[in-house]
Structure formats: C-alpha cells, structure tokens
C-alpha cells in the first residue's frame, strides 16, 4: 500500500513504512519473549502503534476525500 502513496502523499508513504517496521519489530520481540508485552516498553510500543494507526486512518481518509473532489 505504501507504493500507492509514494508519488501521491509522502507523509502517508513514510508512516506506512514506519508501521511495517514497528509491526515487524513487535513480532520479533514477542517471539523472543512474550512477557515483554506487559513491560513499560511493551505498553508504550502498543500505544505508539495505535496512535500511528489512527493517524494513518485519518490521513488516508482526508487524502481520499481530496481525490474524490
């Protein structure tokens, strides 16, 4: 999906790439030690990922509304 936004919206493009990196790192850390999810770092990363997803949804929604006009 980031490829679609590469030429259209650089902010969305880079946030989608960041989302992929954060998601992969979370999986790797979870495979190494499941208990890390309940640590302060794990909870902060979960919060950051959720904020990132909300920001992406808002930006994609706004971008789609501009494209429809």
Give structural notes.
The protein has 69 residues and is mainly α. It has helices at residues 2-5, 10-32, 40-68. It starts with a helix and ends with a helix. The mean pLDDT is 88.
Short recap of the structure:
The chain is an all-alpha fold. The chain has helices at 2-5, 10-32, 40-68.
Task: Name the shape in a single word.
Answer: elongated
Structural class based on helices, strands and sheet pairing: mainly alpha
By oligomeric state, this entry counts as single chain
Total individual domains: 1
Question: Radius of gyration in whole Å, from Cα?
Answer: 15 Å
> What is the count of β-strands?
0
State the helix count.
Answer: 3
Give the SSE order as H and E letters.
HHH
Low-pLDDT parts are none
Major sheet characteristics: none
Mean of residue pLDDT values: 88
The amount of helix comes to over 70%
Proportion in β-strands: under 5%
Distance between the termini: 22 Å
Give the tags.
about 70 residues, about 0% strand, elongated, mainly alpha
Write the topology of this structure:
Elements (H helix, E strand, L loop, with lengths): L1 H4 L4 H23 L7 H29 L1
Helix pairs in contact: 2-3
